[in-house]
Design goal:
Layout lengths: L14 E5 L4 H12 L3 E5 L3 H10 L6 E3 L7 H15 L4 E4 L15 H30 L1 E6 L12 H21 L3 E8 L15 H5 L10 H11 L11 E4 L10
Parallel strand pairs: 1-2, 1-4, 2-3, 4-5, 5-6, 6-7
Helix pairs in contact: 1-7, 3-4, 4-5
């Protein structure tokens, strides 16, 4: 069996904050950045799950867990300030938190649920950028990655409110890239179906059938998305900003829905 090639330690000395990091893509990103030498602050709503996730990363001197609801302004500020206090900087922000409490036709949608989707998926992401800018990046620079979705690039049917919020996040990414350059780079990634608990309803019990629609013949993993984010926050991507990069196994290239 061939041993895995060690990851470069090109993020050593940098401090990253990852939201929605108790599981799924957020946890995968935290693991990847940690393995590349960064210190990581992870945040999520449920303290017990977050503490368990942080402990499983296995580097207590380089991992900080700060529980809080991304939709709460005080919680956002607390997470950012804790990261700067513990690690001395905040060089990387990954806005990964996302919710989708609405399913079905938009014309029949509960507007309270739609408001919650936009509050968490879009407004909270901007709130974290504002806090990061205030606490560190405004003076020192940094890199931001927003986790969008292929649902933000095309109509998404029964999860239309979620797709609309992810489209707004892509637009927000472009606006912030223009506004905050050259010292702060802001990009987004747009995954297709990734095997996480949040997306389980989209593939559970029919994984082979769903995967067959992808040119790569499989669904995504958190590690697929994490590797792309790791590139975007690194110096290797120093002339990339305002971009939304698909990580979708070729799904959109097929033109299928």
């Amino acid at each position: 069996m061939t041993e895995a090639t060690p990851l470069p330690q090109d993020l050593a000395g940098r401090s990253a904050l990852i939201t929605g990091a108790s599981r799924g893509i957020g946890y995968g990103v935290a693991r990847h950045l940690l393995d590349r030498g960064a210190t990581v602050t992870v945040t999520a709503r449920k303290a017990a799950e977050l503490d368990e996730a942080a402990g499983s990363l296995g580097a207590p001197d380089r991992v900080l867990a700060v529980a809080g609801n991304a939709g709460d302004a005080d919680a956002r500020r607390a997470a950012v300030d804790a990261a700067v206090e513990r690690f001395g900087s905040l060089d990387v922000l990954v806005n990964n938190t996302g919710v989708n409490p609405q399913y079905g036709p938009l014309v029949q949608a509960d507007l309270g649920a739609v408001s919650k989707i936009f509050e968490v998926n879009v407004v909270a992401a901007l709130g974290f950028v504002q806090e990061a800018h205030r606490a560190w990046m405004g003076e020192h620079g940094g890199a931001v990655v927003n986790v969008s979705s292929v649902g933000g690039l095309r109509s998404s049917g029964v999860i239309g409110a979620y797709g609309a919020s992810k489209a707004a996040l892509i637009r927000l990414t472009e606006e912030l890239a223009w506004e905050l350059g050259p010292s702060i780079r802001v990009n987004a990634v747009a995954p297709a179906v990734v095997k996480t608990r949040m997306a389980e309803a989209l593939w559970s019990g029919q994984e082979d059938e769903v995967a067959a629609r992808y040119p790569m013949g499989r669904l995504g993993t958190p590690e697929d998305v994490a590797a792309l984010i790791g590139f975007l926050v690194s110096d290797a991507a120093s002339w990339i900003t305002g971009e939304t990069v698909r990580v979708d196994g070729g799904l959109l290239a097929t033109g299928s829905t």
